[in-house]
User: What shape does this take?
Amino acid sequence: MHSNEYDAFGPWIREVRSSEDVPRLYAGHHIEFSNTLVVLKVPRDIARRDANPHMHLYDQLLIVTTESITALTRADERYTARELAVRDIFAIEDSVLLLDGLLTVHAVGTEPLLIPYNGSDRESITRLVAEVRRQATRVDVGSDEDAAGNAHDIELAAEQFLPEMRDQGIRSDCADVLRTEPGSVVLAGQSTIRVHPAAGSGLRFAVAHRMNPAFLSGVVAIGGTGDISLIHRRRWIVRGAGDDVSSARTVVIPARVDVVDVVPHPSYAGVSIVRIAATRGRIEIVVAEHSSVAEVVRQYCARPGAV
Assistant: This one.
C-alpha cells in the first residue's frame, strides 16, 4: 500500500496550497484557502525508514490568516486544535539547537503554543513567523529584495557588542536580521560573559562552578517599526567552556506588554532577569546586571504608539 502522503514524506516542512495537500488526519478541518496567508504541515520526527503508509505522518498543521494562527496537533489517531488571535500575541520565540527546533507563540490569557520542528528546515518557520509578525504589528517586516541591508549596523553589532569568539553565531544571526529587515536598527547588546554563583548559593554549588564554569549568553536587541527582537542562544546560562551552537530569536510586541520588571537572578551574582508581562502571560530574558539591553527593552515597551 502506498499513498501520496507516504511517498512525499521526509524531514521537511511542506507548504499546503490546497485541500489535496492536507494530511488525511486533518482532512475534516475546513480550511478556506482563499483566506490563508501560509499553511504548513510539520512532519513527525521519525526516519523515513521507520515510516509506513498506514501512519499519520504529520504532527502538526499550521494555518495563518490575517486574524489568527491555528495549530492542529496529532494525538495518536485524532488531533487537537488551538487558535490564537494575532491581536493577542505579545511574544514569539524561535530557537534551534542542531536539528532540535522549537517555535513558541505567547498570547495574553492563555498557555503558550509550542511547535517543535526539525531544525534543518528553519526557513519555513522563519517565513511563518514573519507572517504572524506582519499581522500582529500591521507592519511589513522585510523581504528578500532588501538583501543589501544595513552594513553599518552589522559592523557596529559585531565590533561593539559581540567581540568574543563565542558570539560568532549570534553575530551571524544578527547580520541576517539586519540584511533582510532594513527598517531595523541595533539598540543595545552584550557579549557572552562568565558568571559566578551568588553569595549564599552554597559551597557545593560554588565548587561545581569552579570545575565547570557558567556563561551568560551574549544578546543583541534590534528594534523594528512594530516590535523588538532579541538575538541570543536558546539557554541564557550554559555550563562548560565549549561553544554553544544554538540559535534563538525572541520577538516582543510592545503594544501588548503591560509591564517590564528587572530583578536579581537568584543563583548568579551580577545577573538580572527581565520579566516581560502581558495579562497573565510572561516571558523572561537574562542579562548582565545594569545591562543596556534591559533598559532598552523597558523603554521600547513603554513607548506610546510603538506599534
Summary: The domain at 4-137 is CATH 2.30.29.30 (PH-domain like). DSSP finds six helices and 19 strands in the chain. The first strand starts at residue 14 and ends at 15.
